[in-house]
Design a protein that fits this description.
409 residues; alpha+beta; paralog of FGE (formylglycine-generating enzyme); 2 domains
Length: 409
């Protein structure tokens, strides 16, 4: 990619982040509703910190940090860079004020533009991979910005909307609900060897990929079938109505302990009205639960329990990638623990802390959500969260074993 196109992609990404934050007041942008979430202002600052720290400070001769205090305040987890402000306390960080953070963003944007405009071919060859990584990093934070502010606004008993509400009523579930028990509708996966992961040298390589998607490697899969659609709200309500949350036989031991301790009886953001109807909180405010929509905001524990209740299971991330399911609406939990691929090597230096050091005690999700920026999703993308996480747009798709059929070819 040449410097002009790279700069255009950078500017588009930066503008989109600011557009997402635009409806929020300065007070809104200070909200941190739980340790896992971050204030919008922090997302605006941290994504700027990434470009300043890894590109401008390293590759722009004579560059001076906009404010040396930002190196600590907006460092997320890069120990190779230095100390970090405690993550659970980001909502207490009233200084720098929002206006100062925005000045920093625009100052950094001007510096990046100058760097790219004047870079030699040799400099661009070094800068381009880091800048591309930074663009995709900011796109990840665009999704996090939305999920984090949704959780924050949910704390308000008036359930305020971030975006204007629509007048479109829920669709009739009787007309659109799928039947998971129709075997001929399940997507078959033949037994055989499959190439998993991103291969930069493949003819159909799709450009950028994070290091945790590499290297491409071969896995042997047994015959299986994946459901043609994600589990819907109507199907989930049946699980609830038939006591799925109360029967420990469906649950993993850790999951049952979590469900009991937290009093979990429904997906996150669901509530029952005085009239006995289920509603849920969305970025457009309070809405009746649409029975045809894919269920979302569920933990791995809940997804696994539902699958067991249905007499099925969650697919592995390799089964998911091999079948490339359609009708993806949310990040879908898989049965795979987040671990390195054979031959995985993180990047050298502090930037190598991006993914590799989190490969423990987390589960892989595949797919994308409505909050994922356009062009950011791909079949090899590996998202990962702890099994009790629910504030992301997380859902599930069922899988089951099938009669072995050797893959042809």
């Amino acid at each position: 990619m040449n410097a002009k196109d790279l700069l255009a992609q950078y500017q588009t990404t930066r503008a989109h982040t600011e557009a997402l934050a635009a409806p929020l007041s300065a007070e809104d942008q200070m909200i941190q509703s739980m340790p896992d979430a971050s204030p919008t202002k922090w997302h605006l600052g941290h994504t700027t910190w990434f470009f300043e720290t890894f590109i401008l400070c390293e590759h722009q001769p004579g560059h001076k940090e906009f404010d040396p205090a930002h190196r600590t305040l907006f460092n997320s987890y890069y120990n190779g860079i230095g100390e970090q402000y405690p993550r659970p306390k980001r909502g207490m960080m009233s200084r720098p004020p929002l206006q100062r953070v925005m000045e920093w963003r625009h100052h950094t944007d001007q510096a990046i533009e100058h760097l790219l405009t004047h870079a030699t071919e040799a400099q661009l060859a070094t800068i381009a991979p880091l800048l591309t990584l930074g663009i995709h990093h900011e796109q990840q934070h665009q999704e996090l910005l939305l999920t984090d502010i949704k959780h924050g606004l949910w704390q308000n008993p008036t359930w305020p909307a971030l975006f204007p509400a629509t007048d479109t009523p829920p669709r009739d579930a009787a007309d659109t609900t799928h039947n998971n028990d129709s075997a001929h509708h399940w997507q078959p996966l033949d037994e055989g060897d499959y190439t998993i992961g991103h291969d930069d040298h493949a003819p159909n390589a799709q450009g950028f990929a994070f290091d945790n998607e590499r290297p491409a490697h071969t896995v042997r899969l047994q015959a299986a079938e994946l459901a043609p659609h994600p589990v819907t709200n109507k199907e989930w309500q049946q699980f609830m109505d038939e006591g799925g949350y109360q029967d420990p036989l469906h649950w993993l031991s850790d999951g049952w302990a979590w469900r009991t301790r937290e009093g979990i009886e429904a997906p996150l953001y669901w509530r029952k009205t005085k009239e006995g109807h289920w509603h849920y909180f969305t970025l457009r405010g309070d809405k009746p639960v649409d029975p045809t929509e894919p269920v979302t905001h569920i933990s791995y524990y809940e997804a696994d329990a539902y699958a067991r209740w249905r007499g099925a299971r969650l697919p592995t991330e390799f089964e998911w990638e091999a079948t490339k399911p359609e009708n993806v609406a949310n990040w879908e939990w898989t049965a795979s623990a987040y671990a390195p691929y054979p031959g995985f090597h993180p990047a050298k230096g502090a930037v190598g802390e991006y993914n590799g050091k989190f490969m423990v005690n987390q589960m892989v999700l595949r797919g994308h959500s409505g909050a994922t920026p356009p062009g950011h999703a791909r079949p090899t993308y590996r998202n990962f969260f702890y099994p009790d996480a629910r504030w992301q747009f997380t859902g599930l798709r069922l899988a089951r074993n099938s009669t072995p059929t050797t893959r042809k070819g």
